[in-house]
Amino acid sequence: MAAHSEEAGLHVPPDNRVLFFGRDRAGFRFLSHFHSAPILLDGESWPTVEHYYQAQKSHHPEYKAVIRAASRAGLAKRLAASPSAPRRISKHSWFRRTGMQPRPDWHDVKLDIMRRADTAKFEQNPQLAVLLLATGDAELIEDSPDEPFWGTGPDGLGLNWAGRVLMEVRDRLREG
After folding, report:
1. How confident is the model over 74-101, as pLDDT tens digits?
2. Whole-angstrom Cα distance, residue 170 to residue 165?
3. Through-space distance between the first and last CA atoms of the chain, rounded to whole angstroms
4. The whole model's pTM is what?
């Protein structure tokens, strides 16, 4: 697959691991959920996967509108912070401001929501699909020290669901 990655302008590291949050961010920024890549899901347009993902934390129409209108993915994430998170994290939270709570089944559905959003990102943005496929069989890793579910966490032993979902999407694109 090296030839395809070269054609796409990508240079998969010699260890065949793409650490897209930190180490290899410059060449693989497109893998981030914060990457500007519009998607259309549920009849609505979203500027990034992160916007869509965060908007699913509540069914409240005002909440969804506020998240969609966020100028940046990072702001969408801050607006979606749990009201029970430490103040430094939740000070901009829509939930804290309104006294509402995220949907009770969030932890049960969040992984499937991310799968759906990442699939839309790469199916609806063909140039990004080419880049994802050009990673070949490299292990995709969100080496975020702050995120033990989506990334590798502070000890490097996190679940890396962000990378795992991207590899699932890459496999589906190859098959389809």
Report:
1. 999 999 999 999 999 999 999 999 999 9
2. 9
3. 18
4. 0.94
- pLDDT tens digits, residue range 54-66? 999 999 999 999 9
- CA count, 13 A, side-chain hemisphere, 133: 17
DSSP 4-46: HHHHTT----TTSEEETTTTTHHHHGGGSTTS---EEETTEEE
> Where are the alpha helices (H) located in 29-103, listed in sequence order?
49-55, 61-69, 73-79, 87-90, 94-98
Q: Which residues, 6+ apart, have CB-to-CB distance to 41 below 8 Å?
A: 52, 116, 117, 120
Q: What is the gyration radius of the CA atoms in the chain, in angstroms?
A: 17
Most distant CA pair in the chain: distance in Å?
53
Tell me the β-bridge partners of 39: 46
